[in-house]
Write a structure and sequence with these properties.
Number of helices of chain A: 21
Pfam families (chain B): DUF2344
Structural class of chain A: alpha/beta
Shape of chain B: elongated
Biased composition (Polar residues) (chain B): 246-267
Radius of gyration of chain A: 25 Å
Strand content of chain A: 5-15%
Oligomer: heterodimer
Number of strands of chain B: 11
Largest sheet of chain A: 5 strands, parallel
Radius of gyration of chain B: 20 Å
Protein name (chain B): Radical SAM protein
Number of helices of chain B: 7
Number of domains of chain B: 2
Number of strands of chain A: 18
Structural class of chain B: alpha+beta
Helix content of chain A: 25-40%
Strand content of chain B: 25-35%
Region (Disordered) (chain B): 225-267
CATH architecture of the largest domain in chain B: 2-Layer Sandwich
CATH topology of the largest domain in chain B: Alpha-Beta Plaits
Largest interface: A-B, 31 and 31 residues
Distance between the termini of chain A: 49 Å
Largest sheet of chain B: 9 strands, mixed
Shape of chain A: globular
Distance between the termini of chain B: 28 Å
Chain lengths: 640, 267
């Protein structure tokens, strides 16, 4: 049995900020009868509602699961500290926003981690839910705690808190898990929690940390990771969904009443990216490229707009201008919705894939505010290291066209602390911005143009060629950024036209610790949580000092420290904490690509050149799926 | 151009919707219902919607009002049904009339509120109400953007009475109900302020937050304390002169400022 805690919660809501985020009832949300379902999922995005609600991953799984007969999925988000305090005082458990049931009453508690900075929020939610923080203390009465999302490609830092993890695409994975849980429940839960986890692990697609032992060398490095019971696979594989047109989710996107960070009809136009930027974990772990067809996109946009009433369409992917038919898609949609004042947006546009016709289509029904590009590195040399093959001439030509066509503002994104980087590589960012403004003033015949340089510290990530690289320390990052700022501000002629925004190096060190950490980091996360750490992705809540203090308390027992995890370079033979999680990438290929980076050698994109043997397709049994289909999007007949 | 006046509710858990939240939800509902809205001119055109006197976040309401301008003629009742279906349950559109008179905002002179005080004995509430009404002035404080501010909560109150709820409640707990009629003055006196006033004059301190619902808004009959339907004059005008065609009807009601205040700042 399970009962709504809404009556208790309702009495607390008048005392908290933005109570609407806790009441649910969003358009297109689903509440299914509890008793009529035998597998029940609580899905969490472990951040505030305003960030979590628009998350596409959670929205897709919510809909996929709720479409199944006898299965229900409800959502839960992190509560802000004001409500957390009241919930503790009045003993209200972590609840779902759909029917306000205690999260502890569900069969599976699935968390989606886009970033490692949600780990402390997971512990808050577990504790509020009355679920023991560590998996070993849980009983049959507790939900299976399951992690997914990009950060789950190295779940080791949170291994103690998880029952299981899934890496890769979730759509089919949640259905497979549902089936196994359902059968186990129907059989009367034979063998208890251990047995259902064993059945999940045997699929080879669900990682159950407790079935693996980690052995360490005397110097602190990992000796090996081995299954501790027979039948458990040595490596766990990622999931890959093929044919995106078969998975047109979300069909009925949630429309919140509360204000959230993205309020638009989002369509994922392709998944995966093989541009091969060496710093980019998303591009490495989501291979191969799988496009949604132009007609599939058109149908999703049409149905989604009808279902939501949104006034903007976002065409999402890791590099949206790379869709083989992006020009036709943009023109077709702009034609179709010209009357309805629907705006189009294309996040993640590469400099070399940008063209002015496309940009004109995107802004036809809306504003022409600013363009954003990410050269990532300031010098030609460093861009070869990171394999971001964009030349300064490309960039200048592109922004010149933009300024010439009426844009007044260009934003440029960079990273600081890339492998082999020197002060000079970063200072060249100032030269690039100056050249942009000089060319812009010439083309626009006006001084009223701006360029904003936005820069943050680089964090090496698992499953990338930079997984072996040393991270730049916070102090060195800050010093380098200060030099860049001084150079930009010091330019008399152009400095005032260049905005400079940067993120200091400290949060990056904590992110680095969590990204490339192993099971020993769990003690740090727990200590930070117990000391009050919450919402680490939020500047006003994040405390670097707290993280460092907790690391100093817990890590010396293991003979390691924060620097060991972050600024230390790893060698070829080192066993990495995530080696037993198979993203399909061949570790030797990653190493070669790392060596190529050091040699400043570039790699092409396998969509347009022969396969370079990264290993994913043969290992995962997948293939590149791209157009062009040659089809067109016709304007719909307007019935008014 | 046709103007339609709507009455809508904030019920149940959706009473926690703020006015800004409601505005976004309503504009999306207009799109889903494919209402032929008139748009403002300018670089970023907005649909023409005038909101009046929104209830505070957290209080329920049976009587919120707004007015929309259409680019094409529509039957008010059909439009009401469509919009109601396009909004989440709890934000319900309960009435629609074509605007045929000026000054909807001017007719929203007073509100009737129901304040439910769980855990408060009706007799105790009654004594507090007596003390409050007996006072000439009841100074209360409220936090505003410019810090704490002190003002009189008594002058705006046209009527306040305590009634009890039927004692057949399953938990057997006491529950008092206040019926409050308050004039819309500046500074606005809200139900919360009257509750502060009851605390100041009679130490009335409900153990749980009060459940507050606006029951009506409209013209105030000072003698009886009743508040009349602000859409009635439009309905009467419709009976007198049925609408003939798009645009004709509005020609007769020209002259004067915007009939309802802008949404900004009214919450």
């Amino acid at each position: 049995m399970s009962e709504s805690v809404f009556p208790q919660l309702e009495a607390l809501l008048p005392h908290v900020q933005k109570p609407i985020q806790y009441v649910g009832g969003e358009l297109n949300s689903t509440v299914k009868p509890w008793e009529a379902c035998d597998v029940r999922w609580a899905l969490m995005y472990p951040d505030a509602y305003e960030v979590g609600l628009p998350n596409q991953g959670v929205m897709i799984l919510y809909e996929v699961l709720n479409e199944q007969e006898g299965v229900l999925a409800e959502r839960t988000y992190s509560v802000w500290p004001d409500l957390e305090a009241l919930m503790r005082e009045h003993e209200v458990p972590q609840f779902t926003v759909d029917s306000h049931r205690p999260v502890g009453d569900f069969d599976v508690f699935g968390l989606s981690f886009s970033t490692e900075l949600g780990y402390t929020n997971m512990l808050t939610a577990l504790d509020l839910a009355g679920i023991p923080l560590e998996a070993k203390d849980r009983t049959e009465d507790h939900p299976l705690v399951l992690a997914g999302g990009h950060a789950a490609f190295n779940p080791e830092p949170i291994a103690d808190f998880l029952d299981c993890a899934v890496i890769g695409d979730g759509e089919q994975a949640v259905l497979d898990i549902t089936r196994i849980v359902r059968e186990w429940k129907a059989e009367g839960r034979p063998g208890g929690r251990e047995e259902v986890l064993f059945r999940l692990s045997r699929t080879g697609n669900v990682y159950v940390p407790k079935f693996y032992d980690v052995e360490y060398l005397a110097d602190g490095r990992i000796a090996r990771v081995v299954p501790n019971r027979s039948g458990v696979p040595w490596r766990v594989s990622k999931h890959t969904v093929m044919d995106l047109d078969e998975w047109p989710y979300p069909k009925q996107p949630l429309v919140p009443l509360a204000e959230t960070v993205h309020e638009r009809m989002s369509v994922e136009i392709f998944r995966g990216c093989t541009r091969g930027c060496r710093f980019c974990q998303a591009g490495m772990i989501t291979r191969p490229v799988r496009e949604r067809s132009i007609t599939g996109i058109g149908e999703m946009v049409e149905k989604g707009l009808k279902a939501t009433g949104f006034e903007e369409v976002g065409l999402l992917s890791l590099s949206s201008a790379d869709h083989t038919e992006i020009g036709e898609v943009a023109k077709g949609l702009a034609d179709r919705y010209e009357e309805d004042k629907i705006g189009l947006s294309l996040p993640s546009t590469r400099v070399d894939a940008f063209n002015i016709d496309l940009a004109n289509e995107l802004t036809r029904n809306g504003r022409r505010s600013g363009l954003t590009f990410a050269p990532e590195g300031g010098s030609e040399r460093i861009r070869k290291v990171i394999n971001k093959m964009v030349s300064e001439e490309d960039l200048i030509r592109t922004v010149a066209t933009a300024y010439g066509n009426g844009w007044r503002q260009v934003k440029l994104y960079f990273m600081c602390g890339l492998p082999t980087e020197t002060d000079d590589d970063v200072l060249q960012i100032a030269d690039m911005a100056i050249n942009v403004i000089a060319k812009g003033r010439e083309v626009a015949k006006s001084n009223d143009i701006r360029c904003t340089v936005s820069i943050g510290g680089f964090v090496p990530k698992p499953h990338t060629p930079f997984q072996w690289a040393p991270q730049l320390s916070a102090e060195e990052t800050d010093a380098r950024l200060a030099k860049l700022r001084d150079k930009i501000r010091g330019d008399k002629k152009y400095g005032r036209s260049i905005g400079f925004r940067y993120h200091d190096g400290k949060p990056g060190i904590v992110e680095g610790l969590l990204s490339r950490g192993d099971r020993r980091i769990g003690a740090v996360i727990r200590a930070v949580y117990e000391d009050g750490g919450r919402f680490d992705g939020w500047r006003e809540h994040f405390s670097y000092d707290r993280w460092m203090a907790c690391a100093e308390k817990t890590l010396p027992d293991f003979g390691v420290d924060v620097a060991w995890y972050t600024t230390r370079e790893r060698g070829y033979e080192e066993v990495l904490p995530w080696d037993h999680l198979d993203s399909g990438l061949d570790k030797d290929w990653l190493w070669e690509d790392w060596q190529d980076a050091l040699d400043e050698t570039e790699v092409e994109d396998c969509r347009w050149t022969p396969c370079f043997d990264c290993g994913v397709c043969p290992q995962m049994g997948t293939e590149i799926q791209i157009g062009p289909t040659g089809k067109k999007l016709l304007p719909l007949t307007v019935v008014k | 151009m046709q103007r339609i006046r709507l009455r809508y509710t904030k019920r149940g858990r959706l009473r926690f919707t703020s006015h800004r939240d409601f505005q976004r939800a309503f504009e999306r509902a207009l799109r889903r219902a494919e209402v032929p809205m008139a748009y403002s001119a300018g670089f970023t055109p907005h649909p023409k919607v005038s909101y009046a006197n929104a209830a505070p976040t957290g209080t329920g309401s049976e009587a919120e009002y707004l007015e929309i301008q259409l680019a094409a003629h529509r039957d008010p009742e059909t439009l009401r049904t469509l919009l109601d279906a396009s909004l989440p349950d709890g934000l319900d559109v309960t009435d629609a009339v074509e605007a045929r008179t000026s000054g909807l905002a001017d007719r929203l002179q007073a509100s009737v509120w129901e304040i439910r005080l769980d855990g408060v004995a009706p007799e105790e509430a009654g004594r507090a109400v007596e003390a409050f009404l007996a006072a000439e002035e009841v100074l209360v404080e409220r936090r505003t953007k410019n810090g704490m501010r002190s003002f009189d909560a008594r002058g705006a109150v046209a009527q306040l009475e305590a009634t009890s709820i039927h004692s057949d409640r399953p938990d057997g707990n006491a529950c008092a109900i206040l019926r409050l009629v308050v004039r819309h003055l500046t500074p606005a006196v809200r139900p919360d302020d009257v509750l502060s006033g009851l605390r100041v004059t009679a130490d009335l301190a409900p153990p749980v937050p009060a459940a507050v619902t606006r029951l009506a808004q409209g013209l105030l009959d000072e003698e009886t304390g009743t508040v009349t339907d602000p859409l009635a004059p439009d309905r009467d005008a419709a009976t007198a002169a049925p609408s003939t065609a798009d645009g004709l009807s509005t020609a007769t009601v020209q002259g004067g400022a915007s009939p309802a205040t802008s949404g900004d700042g009214t919450a």
